[in-house]
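Quick one - inputs below.
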Amino acid sequence: MNLHFDVEGGEFISAGVASSKVKKVLKQLAIQPEIIRKISVAMYEAEINMVIHAHGGVIDAEIMPDYVHVILKDEGPGIENIELAMKAGYSTASRLAREMGFGAGMGLANMKRYADILQIESEPGKGTTVEITVKLYPEQS
Amino acid sequence: MHLTQIKDILDAQVIAGKGDMDQEVDFGYGCDLMSDVLAYVQNNIVLLTGLVHPQVIRTAEMLDIKVIVIVRGKVPGSDLIEMANRRDIVIMTTKHSLFTASGLLFKNGLIGEEIAHNELTF
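Output:
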């Protein structure tokens, strides 16, 4: 199953709608709650990042029998130094992001924590693509 | 701890999810930083926070948090209350600070969610 979402930039109130919809679909598929939580948190952090740092973007979530693969693509400013950005506590977020409880430099660290595979490709000035893969039945693989 | 007990201990007002008060939580967690909530909460908790941004409800939704106590007498906007009602999330408000509210619940037997992983080695 493929789900596609267009995410608007600067929409701090509605940010998270895509993650919420994916979570609902996974619940209907009776996936284990702990696995749903991993996908939800990783995707939500990535979606928030899109709204905070880029000007929104597109999300494609692919739900396969044994894994979920989420691709979040933006045409924002890109990440200068991914290694530094991955460091817990490092942040370039705005005051507005901080007012909504984010922007403390935990986003990428949280994505790494909850994703089974996390891939980030970024080019300064061009944009960023984040890919999150979570296995639905990790004990079998 | 039952939600009615939390309401009584904190002298709180229930402003959303009034029909969902008949349930219990196992742990408490107090934080204004939603990324930290996302990083550390694993269990069935009551979230105590002074943040009244609608993203508090989104964060709760992602983690299946069923009850939020807003501290320091802050009053959330109607958008937050509406989001909570749509998701069957209970919202209470208390005049106590985060420290005092946490302390009162702890004193009455509610323990904190422990941090299960080391930030530097995850």
